[in-house]
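Format notes (please read before filing issues)

Several people have asked whether sequences and structure tokens are stored in separate files. They are not. Every record keeps both together, in the order shown below: the sequence lines, then the token lines. Line labels are part of the format and must not be stripped during preprocessing.
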Amino acid sequence: MLSIVNPAGFSRALRTRDAVGTLLAHMGIESQWELEIAAMLSQIGSVVLPPAVVERHYYGKTLTHSDTVAVHGMAKVASRLVDGIPRMDGVARILMDQDRRFDGKGAPADRPHGTDLPWGARILKVLLDLDILETRGLPPESAMEMVRSRTGWYDPEIVELVAEMRDAFDSPDAPVL
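Then the structure lines:
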């Protein structure tokens, strides 16, 4: 469904799923099915937005206030779409908090922050933000530096794991993925 309604979102979800798999392999974790499914469903909330709004968001174009509110609601929509499906409650929690800042700033104010955020949501926040920065034209190294400079936005341990993973797979003797 996402590939038809929002091909850019589908591509973003695929890149995020692949990055999750690479990160888990780097960490020596064989599988984390909830996180992998959450990565694939991370953009499903975009199906309720007009394609022009989604495109402006992905490519860093100016959004109106109502567009911004709608974009910030994508995570909640994604979470609600899977909430109630048997054994998907962990995926729904990851999706709900995938845009949540580690320091708790931002909307919604009543959500967890810090290490109370699901581990998978903290990972998705870093990977999705890196993806959007690179989609907007930043080279990977610059995108990583931008993420590092955003004090309070991300779990610092996750940021460093992602940086290590990227360094490991960018080296000349890295395995072919």
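For reference, the curators noted about this record: Confidence is low (pLDDT under 50) at residues 172-177. The first helix runs from residue 2 to 5.
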